Automatic annotation (TrEMBL):
Residues 3-105 form the TF-B3 domain. The keyword Transmembrane helix does not apply. Its main location: nucleus. GO terms for molecular function: DNA binding; DNA-binding transcription factor activity. Keywords: DNA-binding, Nucleus, Transcription, Transcription regulation. The keyword Calcium does not apply. InterPro entries: B3_DNA-bd, DNA-bd_pseudobarrel_sf, LEC2-like. This is TF-B3 domain-containing protein. SMART domains: B3. It comes from the Eukaryota.
Amino acid sequence: MKQLFSKVLSPTDIEHRLAVPSEILWAFELDEVDRAADFEVKDIAGKKWQFRCSTRKKDFHPKPVVSKGWRRFVKDKRLQVGDKVVLYKDVEGDSSFRIKTMKKVFKLFGEDVWLES
């Protein structure tokens, strides 16, 4: 599994959509017209989630976001601002995606300590 990105969630990520780095667009097979791709993700418990990654159609900078299915995931996982998500892709096998959620529990020697949630 290759880690695509790790992100501490912002208010926009919690309330609307998850902004993701442009550098990971290679991991999705975006439709040329819609500039979007639906994909399935498994969480650490094995539950499957349906998401959509899309970009702006008429903008030089694509600014990709995960929208469809994201708000339900946030609600079901009880995610809050400051929590972290990590997205992985199996680049050698079946191209499946995995997602991990984490909560910051405390600092130790100046470093955040995260617990999978």
